[in-house]
Amino acid sequence: MSESSGGTGATERVADVLLLFTYGPPTLGVSRVSRELGLSKAVVHRILQSLTSRNLIAYDPESREYRLGPAAAALGSRALRDSDLRAAALPFLAELRDRLHETVTISAKVHGGRVYLDQVVGNHEITMSVELGRRFPLHAGSSGKCMLAHSDPDEVDRLLAGELTALTPATPTDPDALRAELDRIRERGYAASAGERQGDAGSVAVPVFGPGGLVGAVSVCGPRFRVTEEFVAATAPELIETADRITARLGGTAPARAVPTPTGGIP
């Protein structure tokens, strides 16, 4: 990353440091931030001091590391509350949960990945919940993959040319195999996963579109032993209908897709 002296470069560096705290470990030291972003320790220290003075970052003198501060939490809460995607999706999430009894989520695409905006937790005795606001990569899990399948081709090429980190043993890490799977996702309209982001979880997801194109994804997730191929095949049409209703409410247009069949389960 360039350490250019221009105002735009300085603003980007501050934003990159702040965004680094949205994924990975909850606390970071100067050396880790410097290494991750390719910035000098002096630059990182100045940025962290500035963010700390505004309560966006908090410093722990015992560990000598930093974590997100109360002002960042307030920003995140306000962003969730004011999210058009979340507001449009929430009533439909509750309806779908009541029919399927599994946890239903809405995710937004963000720079470098995606984040969960909200969820309606399933009503089984053993159920699943997700971490809101944390950034996850697009190549792991059904929500990320269905967003990646409908992303700009140049973005897809850049992601597949880079390192595909394995979050679990089931995370897709072969670029050619993942590219082929993205083609299938675009054709049938949904993505499925089994233990890709979290080892004991399974999910199925469908992209959501706004006036400008892809904005996020709606998914159904649960313990892996319940999210079987049969569950995915039976759930996909309902999830597609829900995603299309959210897309319509946002003023977007869903792409053409093949009709899901009972053979289109977990890849």
Describe what you observe in this structure.
With 267 residues, the chain is α+β, with helices and mostly antiparallel strands. It has 2 domains: 8-73, Arc Repressor Mutant, subunit A; 83-250, GAF domain (Beta-Lactamase), CATH 3.30.450. Helix content is 44%, strand content 19%. It contains 9 helices and 8 strands. The protein has helices at residues 7-20, 30-37, 41-53, 70-82, 84-100, 142-149, 153-161, 175-188, 229-250, and strands at residues 57-60, 65-68, 103-110, 113-120, 135-136, 191-194, 201-210, 213-223. The strands form 2 sheets. A 6-stranded antiparallel sheet has the order 5-4-3-8-7-6, sandwiched between helices. Helix 1 (7-20) packs across helix 3 (41-53) and helix 6 (142-149) packs across helix 8. The longest helix is centred in the C-terminal third of the chain and has 22 residues, at 229-250. The protein is globular and about 55 Å long. The chain starts with 6 loop residues before the first helix and ends in a 17-residue tail after the last helix. Residues 1-6 and 261-265 have low confidence and may be disordered.
Structure, briefly:
The chain has helices spanning 7-20, 30-37, 41-53, 70-82, 84-100, 142-149, 153-161, 175-188, 229-250; strands at 57-60, 65-68, 103-110, 113-120, 135-136, 191-194, 201-210, 213-223.
